[in-house]
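User: C-alpha cells for this complex, please. No commentary.
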Amino acid sequence: MDKFIVEGGNRLVGSVKISGAKNASLAMMPTCLLAPGVFHLENTPNNRDVWTFSRLLGSLGVHAELNGNTLFMDSSTITSFEAPYEHVKKMRASIYVLGPLLARYGHAKVSLPGGCNFGPRPVDLHLKGLEKLGAEITVEGGYIVAQTKRLKGAHFHFDISSVGATVNVLMAATLAEGHTTLTNAALEPEVTALARMLQKMGAKIEGIGTTTLEIDGVDVLKPVTEVTTPDRIEAATYLIAAAATKGDVTLHNVNPYHIAAIIQKLEEAGAELDVTGETIRITMSDDPNPVDVTAAPYPSYPTDAQAQWAAFMLHAKGAATIKDTIYPTRFGYVPELQRLGARIETTENSCTVHGGRRLTGATVMSSDLRASASLVIAALMAEGTSEILRVYHIDRGYESIEQRLQALGANIVRSRTEEF
Ligand code: EPZ
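Assistant:
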C-alpha cells in the first residue's frame, strides 16, 4: 500500500483544474443499465472509485473503459444481475445498480454494503423506496434479493434526506409504470446532475433542483453523452489547503454555486476569494479566525469537507467547533491530527479544535477518503516530515493529488510500502 511523504511549511501557489465530481460519476454510471447502447461520460475523474464501479459494471456485462477523462460504456449485452460482495465491500455506491436492474430487468441480487469507518450507513431508505414502487425484497445471506413483474409509480417520502436513496429510487422510477412523486428528495448537485442526464435519456422528470420530484414512467430510455459536473468537494479541499498554507491558488473548472457555504466560511476565516465564472482565486496571509462549521444536507456545509476544515482550524486564533449532523461519528481523523500536535476534544457529534498550535510532522494513518485529505492538509501545515499511510483511501476520490499539489509547490511524494 502506498504512502505519502510530506515536508511541511511550503505555501501552495499557482493554479489547479478541478476534476469532474466523483459522486456525480458514481450516480450517472449505473444509468447505462436503464438503456442498451453506448454512453460517453465526459469529464469523468480518473480515480479508484470510478475504476471500482467500472469493474462492477463489467461483471454485469457492460464494457466500461476510461479513456483519459471520458468514460465509454456499452450496455448492449447485460449478462448478470448480481453485484457480488467483492465489489460492494469496496464501495457502498455499488448499491446503485439495484434500482436500474430492477426497473429494466425485474430482478437483482446485490450484496449489502459493508461497514464504514465513520459509522453505520444503513440502506433502509433505498429498500423502502423500491418496495413502495412494487419491488419484492428479501435479505438473504448478506444479499439484497429483489424482484418485480414491473415497477409501478407511487408517492414515496424519504424520512431523511439521502443522496444514495434518492439516486436509486429516482433511477427506478423513470421506467416504472405511471406517475411517481418523491418528497424530501436530496438536493445535492450530484442528484441534480443525475436527473438532468436521465431527462436527456428520455425520462420525464419535473421539479429538478427541488425536494419534490415528479416522474412519469416511460417504456424506453436511450443512451447519451453527458459531461460530469465539477467536483465540489475536491474544490473545497484545494481551497482549504491553499488557505491553510497561506497560499495564493487559482482553481479552474469550479461551480461556485455548489460551494457557496464553503466560500462563506473561508471569507469569515479571513481568506480573500475572487470568484469569476468557473474560476476562483483564494489568497490568505494570516492565521485564520476561528470559525465554527455544522455539516448538514446541501446547500449547507457538506459533511465531506468537515475533516478538511478541522485541519485548517489547527492554526486558528482561537477555538472552533465542527459538528456533523449527518455522520455524528465522522471524526476518525482526530487521533491522527493529535499525533501532529493538535489539541482537539470530541463530543458525541462534534469536535472542538484549539488553534494556535505548533504542528510537527509524524506518521499518521488514513481511515477514510476525506479524513485522508485532512491529514494531507495538516501535514502541509506542520513543520518537518510526515508520512501518511494507506493513501489508497485518498486515491478513491482525488485524481493525481500528489502531482497537483507538487505543481502548487508542495513537497509531497508517493512511496510504495509493503505495510499491510
Ligand atoms: C453520499 O453517501 C456520498 N457518497 C457521501 O460521500 C456523502 O458523505 C453522503 O452522501 C452525505 O452527503 C456518494 O455520493 C457516493 P446519504 P450516501 O444516503 O448516499 C442515512 C465521499 O466522501 N441513511 O445521503 O451513502 C445515513 O446513515 C462520500 O465522497 C439512512 O438512514 O449518504 C446518513 O446519516 C462519503 N438510510 C444520512 O442518511 C438510508 O437508506 C445521509 O446519508 C440511507 C442513508
